């Protein structure tokens, strides 16, 4: 499956593909209404339905070589801390590759988002998947903006994406090489 980081590792994290057995761990993410608003699944009524849709979308991405978020396992505890990965997206008629992540509530503010997105960035550029990477961030998601900044990305533009006002953050491979 192209664009997935299955088997990749960082200092504290292991990446693997999402599987149906992860449902009970991942549902915690979909109990947070603000996160669901940022992910665009807030109109779906229950956390169970939100998580089910998320799994279906991820499995569909895997099947169609459109990337997809990988499960993040903390090496020291062997616990799931969230998801992160590369997603093929169409933005304003142009195909882009997005660095995406979702960290479970109890593991936020511990650097897992920054660590996993840096790995995604390096993996994409080292494998020459694209000349630039983006992150699509809801305009009110300040924490994700900080993660993008720490990952060397810069604000590119503000636009509409799936009915939401978002800021597109971007980094080019030439900027990555010079860091």
Automatic annotation (TrEMBL):
Annotated N-acetyltransferase domain residues: 13-169
Classification via PANTHER family: GNAT FAMILY, PUTATIVE (AFU_ORTHOLOGUE AFUA_3G00765)-RELATED-RELATED, N-ACETYLTRANSFERASE DOMAIN-CONTAINING PROTEIN
Coiled-coil residue windows: none
Species per Swiss-Prot/TrEMBL record: Flavobacterium crassostreae
Alphabetized PROSITE patterns for the sequence: GNAT (PS51186)
Transmembrane region(s): none
SUPFAM superfamilies, per database record: Acyl-CoA N-acyltransferases (Nat)
Lineage: Bacteria, Pseudomonadati, Bacteroidota, Flavobacteriia, Flavobacteriales
GO molecular function: acyltransferase activity, transferring groups other than amino-acyl groups
Name this polypeptide is given: N-acetyltransferase domain-containing protein
InterPro entries: Acyl_CoA_acyltransferase, GNAT_dom, N-acetyltransferase
